Amino acid sequence: MDLKGKVAYITGGTKGIGYGIAESLLAQGMKVAISGRSQKSVDEALMGLNNKENVVGIVSDVSKLADEVNAVDTILKQWGQLDVVMANAGVGHFAPIDEMSDKDWHSMIDTNLNGVFHTLKASVEALKKSEGYYMTLASLAGTNFFATAAGYNATKFGVVGFTQAAMLDLRKYNIKVTTIMPGSVATHFNDHVPSDKDAWKIQPEDIGQLVVDLLKMHPRTLPSKIEVRPTRPDLK
Ligand SMILES: NC(=O)c1ccc[n+]([C@@H]2O[C@H](COP(=O)([O-])OP(=O)(O)OC[C@H]3O[C@@H](n4cnc5c(N)ncnc54)[C@H](OP(=O)(O)O)[C@@H]3O)[C@@H](O)[C@H]2O)c1
Predict the structure, then answer these.
(1) Annotated catalytic residue, options 6, 15, 31, 156
(2) Cα dist. 212→33, 165, 179, 183 in Å?
(3) From atom 45 of ligand 1, which residue's Cα is the shortest distance away?
(4) Does residue 180 contact residue 226 with C-beta atoms inside 8 Å?
């Protein structure tokens, strides 16, 4: 894909991995829409991004299909096409399953799992037109289970299965579909505050570079499921 002038939508692009991907795609000359749940978080993110003429911020909660339909309509009205969709928005709540609250369980299912479907549902006709690319941000928690993560594991195992099946459905339209499964990334996930102590982790811009590499891959080749992890977890 020649990236200059292509249009991307990144859900949950106000911070963390989504923001890092936004920076990387803007540096390639792409037009980028980012979303988040509040006007405040969207506005703060927009202030930090370069290439202001190529970026828009949209308030959208991925747990609501109507929000995602509105987000895609806004992008199509603004730029007339949609080439790359990153279903990145996600939350994590960790507790032994007997202590997991109903609210936290549903928050993860609604955002991490229902959200990726809503984003695809809202954008798939535009992606058919552009013969574009749809990616999800799953996690190594989509293949490795661990204590306190029953809810998060359930969503991320689900996202991996969802994305792989969607890939089989959509490749006949020349839509590429990939799920990226990172290990620890230095972000604000689960109220973490990134610091120097996170130097051993994957950095958001590394995932941005990975996305650029995927977009530039030859049209005939599709890395459909990618595990990516810190090289030196022993340095933690
Ligand atoms: N950090 C890691 O180690 C790691 C590892 C593997 C996978 N992941 C996955 O990577 C993705 C991004 O996480 P992150 O680490 O970058 O976390 P983060 O720094 O907390 O960022 C999360 C982003 O998601 C947005 N968001 C949350 N709920 C949303 C909703 N319902 N609708 C729209 N946007 C929503 C947030 O925006 P607002 O707050 O502005 O709404 C924010 O932009 C998640 O799916 C996560 O599960 C993270």
Answers:
(1) 156
(2) 16, 23, 14, 19
(3) 90
(4) yes
Instruction: Tell me the per-residue pLDDT of 35-58, one tens digit each, with 9 for 90 and over.
Output: 999 999 999 999 999 888 999 999
Domain 7-235 has CATH 2.40.50.1070: no
The pLDDT value recorded for residue 1 is 74
- Establish whether 156 is a catalytic residue: yes
In single-letter form, the type of residue at position 90 comes to G
Average pLDDT taken over every residue of the chain = 97
CA distance 63 to 85: 16
Q: Check if 189 has its Cβ closer than 6 Å to any atom of ligand 1.
A: yes
For residue range 62-91, what is the model confidence (pLDDT) as tens digits?
999 999 999 999 999 999 999 999 999 999
Q: Please say if the pLDDT value at position 157 is more than 90.
A: yes
Concerning whether 133 is annotated as a catalytic residue, the answer is: no
Q: Exposure pattern of 100-128 as b/e (b: 16+ CB <10 Å)? A: beeebbebbbbbbbbbbbbbbebbbebbe
pLDDT in tens, 7-23: 999 999 999 999 999 99
How many angstroms does the Cα of residue 16 sit away from the middle of ligand 1?
A: 7
Domain ranges of the chain: 7-235
Give residue 90 CA to ligand 1 midpoint distance, Å: 4
Distance from the alpha carbon of residue 89 to the mean position of ligand 1, in angstroms: 4
Cβ-based neighbours of 40, under 8 Å, separated by 6 or more? none
